[in-house]
Amino acid sequence: MYLSRLALTDFRSYDSVDLDLGPGVIVFLGPNGYGKTNIVEAVEYLATGSSHRVATDAPLIRSGAASATISAKVYAGVDDERSLTVDLELRTGMVNKARLNRAAVRPRDIIGAVRVVSFAPEDLSVVRGDPSARRAFLDDLVIERSPRLAGPKAEYERTLKQKTALLKAMSGRSVRSAGAGAEETLDVWDEALVRAGAELVAARLRTVADIEGYVASNYDAIAPSPSRAVLRYESKSLAEGISPEVGVIAEALAQRMTERREDEITRGVCLVGPHRDDLSLSLGDLPVKGYASHGEGWSYTLALRLASLDLLHADGLEPVLILDDVFAELDERRRERVVAAMDSVEQTFITAAVLRDVPENLDARVYKVEPGVVHPGVPLRQWEEQAVPVAGSSDHGAGYTEGRE
Asked: pLDDT tens-digit profile of 130-172?
C-alpha cells in the first residue's frame, strides 16, 4: 500500500498543500515547529479516525477556518493497480463528512482505506504512562486489523459518556436530578455497553495472543537479554483466562455490571467494562513501568511497533510505516533494526529536523518543509552533496540546504 497523493486544506498550519508522493522512502525535513508532524498526522487520521496529539478535532482545523479537508489517493500496492480516493472534511461544531471514490459515506467507513504503523518519541508513554495509552495502542491495532470494529468502539465510548452522566446525576445529593425511570435507562445503557464492549474485549484478547510472540522476538533482536518481553491483558471486570468468545464475554460483563450497580450509583462512575482494563508489559517477572531502564523502555516501545508491523503482514495487510522524528532518539543498533523493517513496506514516511538524523544510504526523496509550505521532493543523494536548490531560490545559493555534518 502507498499514497500517491496527499492534499490538505486548512489542516493545522497548512492553508493549502498538495503533495505528489509514491512508493519508497519519503523524508519530510525541517526545523521543529514547521509542520512536519502535521503531514503524517493527517495520514494517521485517515487510517484511524482520530489523532493521538489532541482529544478533539478542533485543533486540527486552521485558526479562522470553518473546516479542514484531508484528501488522498491510495494504491493497493506497487504491483497492484487498484486504487481509491479518500476525502475527509473536519467541520467545527458539526458532524464530519467523508467520501470514498467520490461517494458520500460515514467518516468511520473510510477507516481501513489507509493502514499505518506509526512510531514517535511520544510512544514511550505506552510503556511508561497511564493505562489509557496502552489501551489506545491496542485499540488502534485492533482497528487496523479489523476496521469494522471502529463502530463498536465508537458506540461503546458514546454510551459510556451517557451512562456516566446519568450515574453522576443519581449519586449523592444529585439523585433527584436523575428523574423517573433512571434505573430503567441504566439497563438500556448497560445492554449497549455489554454488546459493544464484548466485541472490543474479544478482539483485544485475540490481538494480544497473536502479537506476543512478535514482541518477544523483536525485543530480543533489539536488546538481547535473558529477560523475555511478555504482554498480558488485564481486565478489571473479567476472570483471567476468559475465552475470547464474544458471547462468553458479554455474559460475564452483564453479570458483573449487575453486581456493581449499587457501587456505580454511589460513586457516580462506571466501574465495569473495557475502559478500565490495561495491557501488562513486563520483562521476565518485572513490569516495564517502574523497573526498566530508559534504554529498555525504548527497546520495548520499538518492539511493540515492529511487532505490530509483523502482525499486520501476517494478516496479509501492507501498512504504510510512519517514523515521526524517531531516529534522533535511537542508537545505532536500534536504527539498524528500524531501517531493516523499512525494507518490508512499500512506503515509509520519515520526519526529521536535520539531515544527520536521517540514516545514510537510503533510497529516499526529501521534501523540505517550511512554515505552511512543502517543497517538491528531491533525491536524498542530492541533499548529501550540499547543493539542493528549493523552490524560489536563486543561483547564488540562497535556499540551499545543509549537508551532513
From this structure: 999 999 999 999 999 999 999 999 999 999 999 999 999 888 6
pLDDT in tens, 5-36: 999 999 999 999 999 999 999 999 999 989 99
Convert the pLDDT of each residue in 312-336 to its tens digit: 999 999 999 999 999 888 888 888 8
* Residues 266 and 150 placed together within one structural domain of the fold: yes
Q: Residue 339: name the closest of 223, 222, 229, 215 by CA.
A: 222
For residue 393, being part of any structural domain is answered with no
Looking at 223-342, list the stretches that DSSP marks H as alpha helix, in order from N- to C-terminal side: 246-259, 261-267, 288-291, 294-314, 332-342
If asked whether residues 242 and 287 sit together in one domain, one would say yes
Distance (Å, whole) CA 303 – CA 221: 9
pLDDT of residue 180: 59
The CATH number covering residue 311 comes to 1.20.1050.90
The partner residues of 87 in beta bridges, in order of sequence, read: 71, 99
Statement: residue 385 has pLDDT above 80: no
Q: Tell me which residue has cell 555534518.
A: 405
Q: Based on the domain organization, do 220 and 271 belong to the same domain?
A: yes
For the chain, what is the domain count?
2
- 72 three-state secondary structure: strand
> Which DSSP string corresponds to 316-342?
T--PEEEEES-GGG--HHHHHHHHHHH
pLDDT in tens, 113-122: 999 999 998 8
**CB of 148 within 8 A of CB of 196?**
no
Domain span holding position 108: 1-115+318-380
To 5 degrees, how large is the angle CA 303–CA 304–CA 309? 95
Asked if residue 134 and residue 99 are part of one domain, the reply reads no
